[in-house]
Each structure stands twice: as C-alpha cells, then as structure tokens.
TrEMBL record:
The keyword Thylakoid does not apply. Keywords: Leucine-rich repeat, Membrane, Repeat, Signal, Transmembrane, Transmembrane helix. Residues 1-22 form the signal peptide. InterPro entries: DNA_repair-toleration, Leu-rich_rpt, Leu-rich_rpt_typical-subtyp, LRR_dom_sf, LRR_N_plant-typ. This is Leucine-rich repeat-containing N-terminal plant-type domain-containing protein. The keyword Membrane applies. Coiled coil: none annotated. Residues 33-79 form the Leucine-rich repeat-containing N-terminal plant-type domain. The chain crosses the membrane at residues 1053-1077.
C-alpha cells in the first residue's frame, strides 16, 4: 500500500514536470504567410551540388516541408514571441537559379539577418528590394555569382552592422560594381556599420577618399582586389576599433601607412600588391603587438628590420613574398611559435635556412620558393609535424634530401623543383601517405626511384623530370591509382615500360620522353581511358604502335617522335577523335599514310617527317579543317601535292620538303600561311602569284626543285614579315627585284643562288636590316658590288661567286664585323687586294675566304692576313652554321680538295683560304703560317715566286694544300712532313728542286702532284737524288714579325748599292739573253723560260674564254 502511494506520487510529479517543460519550450507556430513565402522560395531554385564549391554544403531547403513548423526548418530563425521569420541562413545550400525581384524572399519583411553566400544565383542582379529589409543588421551575398550594379537602395539599411558582397566575380560573369554615387550614399547612411567586405567588387570608379565617411565604429574593412586607384585616406588607418584591414591586390592604391597612433586591437593587416608605403622598423612593429596576420607580399616596404618581426609573437600568418629582400632569414623568426603560414617566396633571400625555424611546430604552410637559398635542408624542419605544404623550389639548395622529412606525415604538397639536390630519393618519403603533389624535377638526383613511393596512394601529381635517374621504373608505381600527372622525362631511365602503369586509370598526362626506354609500348597503356597527353619521344622504343592506343579516346596530344618504331602507322589512331597534336616524326615507319587519320577532325598539328612513308598524300586529310601545321618532310611520298592542301584555311605551317612530289604548285585559296617549304622535290612551273599574297608569311623555301621557272615577281616585296627567302637551285630567270634589299627589316636569309638571274644585284640595302645570309652566287649578275651592303651589320655569309660582276675588291666589306664566309670567286674582279688602314680588324671572323678565279693582282693580301683571327684558332664546338631562332642551316658551293661541292651544311670548324686562279705576284708571305686553323689553302695558278715558306709547317690542321702552277723555287720545306692531316698536296708546275720530303703523308702522294718541277728528286718521282742532294739544308725558320715582308731585307741596302746592282745586272742580263736565244744554250734555261711563257698564255686564254 505504501509502495503504491509512493509510485502514484512519483508519476504525478513527473507528469507535472513534463507539462511545465513542454509548455515553456514550445514556441508559437510559424505564421502561415511566412511559411508559404519560404516554400515558394524553395520552389524557385534547384539543388545542384556544384553550386556550393567552396565550402562543404548541404541542401538546407530539403527540410522545409509543408505542414511543419517553419521555425524548426534548417537555416530559419523565428521571433519566439511573434513567430515571424527574423533570420535566414541559406549559406552553402547548393541553390541554383536566378533570384528575381518578385521572389517571395522579399515578402519576409522582418528579417534581421540574411545569408545567401556560397550558392549559384547565376545571372542574378542584386535587387533594389534588398533595401526594403529595414530591420536588417547582417547581409551576406558573397560567393554567389551576383553581377551588375549595387543598388543605391542598400543605403536604406540604416541598422546594418555587417555587409558582405565579396567574391562574386566569375570569368564568365560580370563583376558586381559600385557607382560612385551609390557607394557614397552607403558609407554616409550606414552609420552603424562595423564589418564591410567588398572583395573583388569593381570599385574602379570610386574615389578612395569617399571611404573617409565610413563609420568610426568600423572594426573590419576588406577591399581586396577592387581596382581602387589613388590615395587611400589616412584616417582609416587610425580608426580606434579597427581589427581587420585588408587592402591587398589594388595595384593603383597609394598612400602611407603610419608608424604610430594605430588601433591597439589591430589583428589583421593586408597590404599585398599595393603601393601603400610603410617602414617595417621598430616604431611600427612596436605598435603591432596584437597582430595575428601580416600580408605584405609585393608591397612598398621602404626600409625594414626583419629581425624585429620576431617580437610579433601573436602572428599566425606572415607573408613577405615578392619583395626585394636580399639578406638572410633572421633566426628570430623562430620565436613566432603561433605561426601557421610563412611565405617568403619570390625574394632574394640567401644563405641557409636557420635551424630555429624548427621551433614553429604549429606551421602548416611554408613557402621559400624563388629565392637564392643554399646549403642543405636543415634536419630541424622535421619537427614541423603539422606541416602540409612545403615549397622550396627554384633555389640553390644542394646535398641530399634528409630522410627525416619522412616524419612530416601530414604533408600533402612537397615541391623541391629546380635546385641542386643530388643523391638518391630517400625511401622514407614513402611514409608521406597523405602526399598529393610531389615535384622533384630539375635537380641532380640519381639512382633509381625507390619502390616505397608506391605507398603514396593519395598522390595526384608526381614530377621527377630533368634529373639523372636511371634504372627501370618500379612496378610499384602502378599502385598510385589516384595519379593524374606523371612526368619522368629527361632522365636516363631504361628498360621497358612496366605493364603495371596500365593500372593508373585516373592518369591524364604521362611524359616519359627523353630517356633510354626500349622495347615495345605495352598494350596495357590502352587502359588509360582518361589520358589526354602521352609523350614518349626521344627514346629507343621499337616495334609497331599497339592498336590498343586507339582506345585512348580522350587523348589530345600524342608524341612518339624520335624513336625506332617501324611498320605501318596503326589505322586505330583514327579512333582518337579528340586528338589535336600527333607527332610520329623521326622513326622508321613505312607504308602509306593511313586514310583513317582523316577522322581526326580536331587535329591541329600533324608531323610525320623523317620516316620511310610512300605513296600519295591521302585525300582524307581534306577533312582536317582545323589543321594548323603539317610536316611530312624527308619521306618518299610521291604524286602531286593535293589541291585541298592549298584550301585549308587554318593551315599556317606547310613543310613537304625532301620527297618525290611532282607537278605544279597550285594557287592557295587562303592567306593564313606563315611557313612554306616545298624544297627538294620535282616541282615545276612558275611560282603561283597567291604566294605573294600571304601577308603573314615568314618562311618561303622553294629551293632545289630545278624546274621552277619564270621571273621573281616584285610583289614578293609585299611580304614584309618574311625572315627566310630561299628560291635557290631552280631555273628562275629575269632580273632580281631591286626591292629585295630594303623591303623587310625582318629578313635574315636571302638565297637566290644557282638560278639564271640576270641584271644587277639589289643596289640599296636599308639600315638596321637583319640579313645574316646573302647568297646570289651561280647566276649571271653583272655590275658592281653595292657599297650599301655594309648596312647589313648582322651579315655572316656573303656568296656572290660564279657571276659576271665587274669591280675591284670591295674593301668596304671589312666593316662587316660578323662576316664569317666571303665567296667572290669566278667573277671579273680585278686590281690589288690590300685593305686600307681604316679597317684594322677587317675580316677578323672569316672562316672561308674564296676570291679565286678572278683577275686580282699584286702581292698576296698583305694588308689582311694579319687580321684573319678566326683562321688562327680552331673551333672545337662542331655545330652547323645557321640562324638560331629559325633553324635555317646555311649552305654554300665551293671547291673542296679539288672537287666542286655544294655543302648543304657548313661546319663551324671549317677554315678555307682560296686565292687561286688570279695574277698574284711576289712571295708567299711568311705570316700565312699564323693561320693555324686552316684546313684548305689554295694559292695555285698565280705567278708567285720565291721559296715555299717553312712556316707552312705550322698549319697543323691543313688537309689540302695547292701551290701548283706558280713560279716557286727552292726546296720543299722538310717542315711539311709534320702536317699529319694533309690528304691533298699539289706542287706541280713550279721550279722546285731537291729531295721530296719523306714521311707518312708524303708516301701517299702521286708523282703527278710534283710534275713540272724538273729539279725534284726522290719518291714518288722517278729521278733519284745525288749523294750531295741527300744532305738537304733546312731553310731558315719563318719570322712572325708584324709588318710588310719588305722588313726582311733590314737596313743593309742603300739606294747606291741598289743602283749599282741594277746597272750591272741589266748589262749582263741583256748579253746573256742574246747569247741564249741565239744559240739555244743552255737548253734547260731556254726550255724553262719557254714553258713559263706558254703557261701564262694558256691561263690568259682560259680566263678570256670563261668570261665570254
């Protein structure tokens, strides 16, 4: 009975407590019209997950159900007394759609707080009806895709405490904008405003001084990236309640940040990328003790004492990036133990990283990239266990990566790009299981990739390019199933591609180029269905292209160039409908170009050069209407150039040279060409006039077709962007357009050689032109060499040989300081070749100097030989001469070792001096022995006298020496035995005597190379030397004194001695001559004189015949 009474009392008390609690906790029901407005609001937008990309969102309106109390709906706040909606928080609610002015939102008149941030109200303007919320204290419309003008009605919100319109800009949308009048109303009327955020709002029309009227109670002002220009009002810096000031990314904003009287509660200062000046010294820093964030990247710091920053112990964020600091990092920064973000990138900091930074154990973000730091990574950085971003790229760090970095297990990004790190990658990096980005490229790492990297299963990007890694790719990389980008290019990897890479099904970019990989492409790569870039160029891959590559239907770039692939090009490549760039050049592909390539309608670049392709260019390529660059050079393609190639409107680069194409060149149906090379084919006919309408053309090369005929139209001078013009080795006739010398300052190559051009060469070359190569040789040009050619100050090659030019030696060419090759051979040039004193350094860079087969006379170049500096020193860097920016390689036609050859490429090491077939007299200058780099010296068919200089023995690089058909006397110098590279020697038809030197090279020469020298004896001539002749007296060594050879005579002969000698010699000579020619005795002397006379007569007849 007692228990029953007690139980009954307990339940009564419990019921009373529950009733009381329920009645006090339950608010009145939401007003019906408010609920209806909210439901209409819900219906006006759709839910899309992508509409809230910046924060974790949830569809709050899904909890809004008809028949339930709206005051309990997600994001809704009601007044407990009236049931009216006073707060609406729809931030990150995935809302998508347009917010119209008639939306039911604007019927919620009692709203005090409204947050629509992080949604997607695309194309919506900020409605003027927002100004009707007269009770509103907080309005947040940020990150929601609004656009257009901010309505002036916002100024009616007189109770507003917080306004955030920031970050509505979008690349596809217009920014939110402020007109000056609207903004002025807002800052004047919103007197209670404490927080104002307008980041990325277009305020370029707003004068910064209008900010002066902001409320004195302002605590937060954020105007990042607003386009503000002009002086920022100084009173804002001094507002007493200011806690946050962010003005970054207003490049035109000026002013001066004060060092005193600042708010003592300022905790965040952002002046990055502005021109607001400040002194980062003791006065300012002592007033910034409460500061938690300092953003001064790319700012106007006038003076600084960075060591004092160690006193700002409350700092959590410090950004000093992109300034001009050039000191070491002060160790006092190690005092900032609250720091989470430290950015010192893009400066000139040097020295080592101080170990004290290991104290910053709260650090999550560390960026020291783009500086000049050196030394090793301090092991103390391994203390930073909270670190998830470590950027040390583009410095001078060296040594190995400390294995202790493997302790930073929170790390997501590690970037050590472009340093001097060496050694192997520590296997401990395999502990960084949260790593998503790893970039070790552009260093000196070596060894193999540790298999432990296969543990990094969150890895999204792996860049190891431009190092010295070797060995094979570990199969464990096939575990990185999240990997999107893999770049191992430019290393020494070898072996085959592991088939496990076919597991990386998220891979979008794979670059294995410039290595030593071999074998075939594994068919498993066909599993990489997300791949859009595949680069395997510059390896040793062989075999055929696997047909499975045709499965990579997302592929946009495929580069297999410079390998050993063979067989036919797989027709499965025609499945790659998204392909924009296809490069299969420099392989051994054979067969025809597959017609399936015509399916690649997005193709922008098609390069199949340097293979063994045959047949016609397929007509299916007509479908490639997006094609910009077509390169089919160095194949065996035949047939005519299909007419559709001349009609592809997007085509800018067309290179078909070195094939077997025939027929005429059709007229182009467009004017988009910038590069055209049809050289080395079998084309004929005239040059189509449409070529001269390609106003953007920079390269025109139609050389070596032999059958191109007709005249060169003067319309060619309309191509003012032309850089290379090569029409050589054809049958073009008529006169050379005189405008070619001055129509384009961009022209660097003009090659019209080996044609049938007549008339005079262009007479006017404009100043400041860019000509580097000028070749008009092998034509029938007449007249003079124009002096204006000295305006071609960049000229490296000048070939005017094999023409009919009548002139004296062009001394003015000595002013061309860059000239390396000068060919004037086989013309009608005459006179002496002695340069005036004005050009002391004339021709100092000449490597090839050929003025043979002219009528030059006098002594041998005595005014120039001392200045031929390039012929005195060998060039050990064997490259081919040409223009660096365009890839055009110089060519030249000349006599090499007695044979007329066209050099399609000219080695930079070649040195030639050819003065043959002229009428030079006197002795061979001893100074010629200075030209130690000479490989070919030809002085033949002149009237040179005296001895062969022993100084020629110093020309140790000489391969060919021709002194034949002169009047040289004396013995062959024994010093010539030392010319180990001498392959060609011709001393025939002189008056040499004595023993022929012996030695390795001389034993290879035939007797015909010494004939016409009756006094020579020994091998290989049949005449034996007498016993006396065995004792050859060596000639005196050559002198290298500067000056004319006349100095060899010293001062021992005066005019009297010379007169006496001349008189006696004349009398004796006349008497002896009479006796000899009357009696013909001695016979040997008579025969020598007669042979010399006949030789000179034969030379004269030969020259006369050639000029006719």
């Amino acid at each position: 009975m007692g228990f029953s009474l007690l139980s009954r009392s307990f339940f009564l008390i419990l019921f009373y407590f529950h009733s009381t609690l329920s009645s006090s906790a339950s608010p009145p029901l939401c007003a019906h019209h408010q609920s209806l407005s909210l439901l209409q609001l819900k219906q006006s937008f759709s839910i899309q997950m992508s509409s809230s990309p910046y924060l974790y969102g949830r569809p709050k309106t899904e909890s809004w159900k008809e028949g339930t109390d709206c005051c309990f709906w997600d994001g809704v706040t009601c007044d407990l007394q009236t049931g009216l909606v006073t707060g609406l928080d729809l931030s990150s609610s995935m809302l998508h759609g347009t917010l119209h002015s008639n939306n039911s939102l604007f019927s919620l008149h009692h709203l005090r707080k409204l947050d629509l941030s992080f949604n997607n109200f695309t194309t919506s303007h900020i409605s003027s009806r927002f100004g009707h919320f007269s009770n509103l204290t907080h309005l947040n419309l940020s990150w929601s895709g609004f656009e257009g003008q901010v309505p002036s009605e916002i100024s009616h919100l007189s109770k507003l405490v917080s306004l955030d319109l920031s970050r509505n800009s979008n690349s596809s949308l217009k920014n939110v904008q402020f007109e000056p009048l609207s903004f002025d109303k807002i800052v004047r009327n919103l007197t209670k405003l404490r927080d104002l955020a307008l980041d990325s709002v277009d305020m370029s029309l707003v004068a910064p001084n209008s900010l002066t009227n902001l409320s004195s109670s302002l605590s937060s002002l954020s105007l990042v990236n607003c386009g503000l220009q002009g002086k920022f009002p100084g009173n804002i810096f001094l507002l007493p309640n200011l806690e946050t000031l962010s003005l970054s990314d207003n490049e035109g904003l000026t002013g001066s940040f004060p060092s005193s009287n600042l708010s003592n509660v300022l905790s965040w200062l952002g002046l990055s990328n502005t021109r607001i000046s400040l002194y980062l010294e003791n006065d300012l820093i002592s007033n910034l003790k409460p500061l938690r964030g300092m953003l001064l990247g790319k700012s106007s710091i006038i003076r600084s004492d960075l060591a004092l920053l160690g006193n700002l112990i409350n700092l959590t964020v410090l950004d000093l990036s992109d300034n001009n600091f050039n000191s070491q990092i002060p160790s006092s920064l190690g005092n900032l133990i609250q720091l989470t973000h430290l950015d010192l990138s893009d400066n000139n900091f040097s020295g080592q990283i101080p170990s004290s930074l290991g104290n910053l154990i709260q650090l999550t973000h560390l960026d020291f990239s783009y500086n000049s730091f050196s030394g090793q990574i301090p092991s103390s950085l391994s203390n930073l266990k909270q670190l998830y971003l470590l950027y040390l790229s583009n410095n001078n760090f060296n040594g190995q990566i400390p294995s202790s970095l493997g302790n930073l297990i929170q790390l997501t990004n590690l970037d050590l790009l472009n340093n001097n790190f060496s050694g192997q990658i520590p296997s401990s990096l395999g502990n960084l299981i949260h790593l998503t980005h790893l970039d070790l490229s552009d260093n000196n790492f070596s060894g193999q990739i540790p298999s432990s990297l296969g543990n990094l299963k969150q890895l999204y990007v792996l860049y190891l390019s431009n190092n010295n890694f070797n060995g094979q790719i570990p199969s464990s990389l096939g575990n990185l199933i999240q990997l999107s980008d893999l770049d191992l290019s430019n290393n020494n990897f070898s072996g085959q591609i592991p088939s496990s890479l076919g597991n990386l099904k998220q891979l979008t970019s794979l670059d294995l180029s410039i290595n030593n990989f071999s074998g075939q492409i594994p068919s498993s790569l066909g599993n990489l269905k997300q791949l859009y870039m595949l680069y395997l160029s510059n390896n040793n891959f062989n075999g055929q292209i696997p047909s499975s590559l045709g499965n990579l239907i997302q592929l946009s770039d495929l580069d297999l160039s410079n390998n050993n692939f063979s067989g036919q090009i797989s027709s499965s490549l025609g499945n790659l409908k998204q392909l924009t760039n296809l490069d299969l050049s420099k392989n051994n592909f054979s067969g025809q170009i597959p017609s399936s390539l015509g399916n690649l309608k997005q193709l922008y670049l098609l390069h199949l050069s340097n293979n063994n392709l045959i047949g016609h260019i397929p007509s299916s390529l007509e479908n490639l209407i997006q094609l910009n660059s077509l390169d089919l050079i160095n194949n065996n393609l035949s047939g005519q150039i299909p007419s559709f190639l001349f009609a592809l409107h997007s085509l800018e680069h067309l290179d078909l040279h070195s094939n077997n194409l025939r027929g005429n060149i059709s007229e182009f149906q467009h004017d988009s060409l910038t590069y055209l090379d049809l050289s080395n084919n079998n084309l004929h006919g005239t040059i189509p006039s449409s070529i001269f309408k390609q106003e953007h053309l920079k390269f025109l090369i139609l050389a070596s077709n032999n059958k191109l005929r007709g005249e060169i139209s003067s319309s060619i001078c309309k191509l003012t962007f032309l850089r290379v013009l090569d029409l050589s080795n054809n049958s073009l006739s008529g006169s050379t357009p005189l405008c070619l010398g001055n129509f384009s300052n961009s022209l660097s190559v003009l090659h019209l050689g080996m044609n049938n051009l007549q008339g005079i060469m262009p007479s006017t070359f404009s100043r400041d032109n860019s000509l580097q190569y000028l070749n008009l040789g092998g034509n029938e040009l007449e007249g003079n060499i124009p002096p204006s050619i000295i305006n071609c100050t960049m000229l490296e090659v000048l070939d005017l040989g094999n023409n009919k030019i009548e002139d004296t030696f062009p001394y003015f060419l000595g002013a061309l300081s860059k000239l390396q090759i000068l060919v004037l051979k086989s013309n009608k040039l005459q006179g002496f070749v002695n340069g005036p004193a004005a050009y002391d350094s004339a021709f100092s860079k000449l490597r090839i100097f050929d003025i043979s087969d002219n009528n030059f006379s006098g002594a041998l170049l005595t005014g120039y030989l001392n200045g031929l500096e390039a012929m005195m020193a060998s060039d050990h860097n064997m490259i081919y001469m040409g223009t660096t920016y365009s890839g055009y390689v110089y060519s030249i036609q000349m006599t090499w070792k007695g044979v007329e050859i066209e050099f399609e490429k000219i080695r930079s090491t070649i040195r030639v001096l050819d003065l043959s077939d002229n009428s030079f007299t006197g002795e061979i200058p001893k100074v010629i022995g200075k030209l130690k780099a000479l490989q070919q010296l030809n002085l033949s068919h002149n009237s040179l006298t005296g001895h062969i200089q022993s100084s020629l023995g110093n020309l140790t690089n000489l391969e060919s020496l021709d002194l034949s058909s002169n009047l040289l006397t004396g013995r062959i110098p024994k010093q010539l035995e030392g010319l180990k590279f001498l392959a060609i020697l011709n001393l025939s038809y002189n008056q040499l005597e004595g023993p022929i030197p012996t030695g390795e090279q001389f034993s290879t020469f035939k007797a015909s190379l010494f004939e016409g020298n009756l006094g020579l004896c020994g091998f290989p001539v049949l005449k034996n030397c007498s016993r006396d002749g065995d004792q050859e007296q060596s000639l005196p060594p050559s002198s290298y004194n500067e000056g004319h050879d006349s100095t060899l005579f010293g001062d021992g002969f005066g005019w009297k001695a010379v007169a006496m000698g001349y008189g006696c010699g004349f009398v004796v000579g006349v008497a002896m001559g009479y006796i000899v020619f009357r009696t013909k005795k001695p016979v040997w002397f008579h025969r020598m004189i007669e042979d010399t006379w006949k030789l000179n007569r034969r030379k004269t007849r030969k020259k006369v015949g050639r000029r006719n």
